[in-house]
Amino acid sequence: MAAKVRMYSTQTCPWCQRAEMLLKLRGVTQIEHIRVDLEPGLRAEMVARTGRRTVPQIFIGEHHIGGFDDLDALDRAGGLAPLLQD
To answer: How many helices (H) and strands (E) does the chain have?
Structure first.
C-alpha cells in the first residue's frame, strides 16, 4: 500500500509543481493538496505543523519532508522510495 502524500501548496507555486512532478515520476498517483492561498487559516496550520512559512510543505504519511529541495535531496539519497512504500 502506498503512503498518503499531503502537500501544502498554492496554485501558482513553481516549486509545488516541480514537487508534484517528482512525486508522480516516483509512482505517486494521489496527492492531497492543501491550498493555503484559498484558505488563509490553512497557512497558519502549516506554520504550526512545520515551523516554515514557504510552500510546498510535503508530508509522506506522518513524516514531514519539507519543501521541494528537501524532497529532491531525499530522492537523490535514495530515501524517498522507501517512504512511499509505507
So the answer is: 4, 4
pTM over 0.85: yes
- Closest to 42 measured CA to CA, from 4, 7, 3: 7
Residue with grid cell 505517486, as numbered in its chain: 28
Strand pairing report for 57-60 and 31-35: unpaired
Per-residue pLDDT of the chain (86 residues; tens, 9 = 90+): 578 999 999 999 999 999 999 999 999 999 999 999 999 899 999 999 999 999 999 999 999 999 999 999 999 999 999 999 86
| Phi-psi group of 63: left, alpha or beta (phi > 0 → left; psi -120 to 50 → alpha; rest → beta) | beta
- For the domain spanning 5-85, the CATH number is 3.40.30.10
